């Protein structure tokens, strides 16, 4: 598991040459975000690092399977840390996106259901995003509706 490795060991095991900025970004994304995050989130957390360096570093971490990309339909690419050495963890699971607070959550134990495809079709990528209200927003929404009644 990546979580059992030090930050430096995780980068080395992924074949990434360690630099001060790469280590800084990896530490931030690995330990600083509980849910999926965007480039803007990393930019806000690390204001001294320029945007293009952050983008290149996130791309490198994603290509090394330390992160996985999530297209949640928000128009902003999201990322989530892969917590297992088995990079298949990063593929084939469901994500939840809250339409109110715009947070995206990984459900690594909930696999994407098998979809029957036409003969000859070769899938390259599958996204499965459930959109709705997270528990916190649903509770606030319910309280607001109760106040209006």
Question: Your description of this structure?
Answer:
- With 149 residues, the chain is α+β, with helices and mostly antiparallel strands.
- It has five helices and six strands.
- Strands 1-3-2 form a three-stranded antiparallel beta sheet. A three-stranded mixed beta sheet has the order 5-4-6, with no helix packed on it.
- A hairpin with a 7-residue loop joins β2 (67-70) and β3 (78-81).
- It starts with 6 loop residues before the first helix and ends with a helix.
- 18% of the residues are buried.
- The model has no long low-confidence stretch (mean pLDDT 87).
- Biggest β-sheet strands, sense, barrel: 3 strands, antiparallel
Distance between the termini: 50 Å
C-alpha Rg (nearest Å)? 18 Å
**Strands, count:** 6
Q: Level of helix content?
A: 25-40%
Mean of residue pLDDT values: 87
> Which overall shape is indicated by the principal axes computed on the Cα atoms?
globular
Spans of at least 5 consecutive residues whose pLDDT stays below 50 are: none
Kindly name the structural category: alpha+beta
- Write out the strand line-up for the largest beta sheet, numbering strands in chain order: 1-3-2
- Strand-residue fraction? 15-25%
